[in-house]
Design goal:
It is a single chain. By secondary structure, the protein is of the alpha/beta class. The protein is about 30% helix and about 20% strand. The protein folds into 2 domains: about 130 residues, Rossmann fold (3-Layer(aba) Sandwich), CATH 3.40.50; about 160 residues, Dihydrodipicolinate Reductase, domain 2 (2-Layer Sandwich), CATH 3.30.360. It has 11 helices and 13 strands. It has a 7-stranded mixed beta sheet. Strands 3-2-1-4-5-6 form a 6-stranded parallel beta sheet, sandwiched between helices. Helix 4 links the parallel strand 4 and strand 5. The two termini are about 20 Å apart.
């Protein structure tokens, strides 16, 4: 299968190139970048020397890519820009896996509220399913595989939805008073040439940001509300941590059932044989980012605090793998019936 990547110069785009270059069932035949047009991919990404047969970055014109021979396109673009490509690609019959935020929300009104602009393609929202692979399997949703345009979840939301969504659906935690704190490596901010994200500024320093209304909160609450079948409002505070990659998330939620029942729900939602990218750790064993970085895995665990009647739930993912590019390739594999781990292990 011939596949293409639009916007391959950022961190997520680079990882997509790396994953698809070694994918056993996909041939990466088009990689676009407005800044790098004409340059050999292996020149810009030296880890690919000797691979991709001299593939060069090509024109990013939406009409040109829509008329190309590739069957599937990955969009590794900023929100607001991805839709410019999604519209002509879908119209041309291509399959599109979008890593931006443009199609993660079901409401154009909510998009404008959180992203400060009118949605660039509201007519596509109803036909662009939000796909977190393990949760789609958990609820038995196969309808998304018929879609031409698929929204890939964000990094913070993935680290929160995986542990929390089944617990809300099964009534293991109470729906009110949920507090979430997440720590992210600075690669989550992209390749921004600003002092704030330079090594000297971020090394040996951690800080909260985006409080109290980070953009990903809209996505988190909308998805959790679907699983809870009632409106979920939570407190979410993201932090920049002095590390390059990874996300560690801590969720505090009032217990409605026992810790044993919590683990029963997780084990039913994420059976080992069917969910190779979710690892459920014993209570008291806390996930660490260093053990998931460079993998498409999510590690989750929980403890119960009898003093407060709270569950303290922790999860770790690699923000660029399970939080972006790795999950996008996982979606490709499921979409076409390949081994779910193809290109990811």
């Amino acid at each position: 299968m011939k596949v293409g990547i639009i916007g391959a110069s950022g961190y997520s785009g680079e990882l997509l190139v790396k994953l698809l270059a070694r994918h056993p069932f996909a041939q990466l035949t088009r990689v676009t970048s407005r800044q790098l047009g004409g340059k050999a991919v292996s020149e810009v990404m030296p880890f690919l020397r000797g691979q991709l047969n001299g593939l060069c970055f090509s024109n990013s014109d939406p009409g040109e890519v829509a008329a190309s021979e590739e069957e599937v396109y990955f969009l590794a673009l900023p929100h607001g820009v991805a839709a410019e490509y999604a519209k002509p690609l879908v119209a041309a019959g291509k399959r599109v896996i979008d890593l931006s935020a443009d199609f993660r929300l079901s409401s154009a009104t909510l998009y404008k509220d959180y992203y400060g602009a009118d949605h660039p393609a509201p007519e596509l929202l109803a036909s662009s399913p939000y796909v977190q692979p393990e949760l789609a399997r958990y609820v038995g949703n196969e309808a998304w595989k018929k879609a031409k345009l698929i929204a890939c979840p964000g990094c913070y939301p993935t680290s929160i939805l995986l542990p929390l969504a089944p617990l809300l659906k099964e009534g293991v935690v109470q729906r009110h008073g949920i507090v979430v704190n997440s720590n992210s490596g600075v690669s989550g901010a992209g390749k921004k040439a600003t002092a704030e994200y330079s090594y000297c500024e971020r090394s040996e320093s951690a800080s909260a940001y985006g409080a109290p209304r980070h953009r990903h909160l809209s996505e988190i609450e909308e998805q959790l509300s679907l699983y809870a079948e009632s409106e979920i409002v939570l407190q979410f505070t993201p932090h920049l941590a002095p590390m390059r990659f990874g996300i560690e998330t801590t969720i505090v939620a009032k217990a409605a059932k026992s810790l044993g029942e919590l683990y029963e729900v997780w084990n039913a939602a994420y059976p080992k044989a069917a969910t190779p990218f979710v690892s459920i750790l014993p209570s008291g064993t806390f996930p660490e980012t260093r053990y998931v970085v460079g993998t498409n895995r999510a590690d989750i665990s929980a403890v119960y605090d009898k003093r407060t009647n709270n569950f303290v739930i922790t999860s770790c993912i690699d923000n660029l793998w399970k939080g972006a590019s790795g999950q996008a390739v996982q979606i490709l594999n499921l979409l076409y019936g390949y081994d779910e781990t193809a290109g990811l292990l």
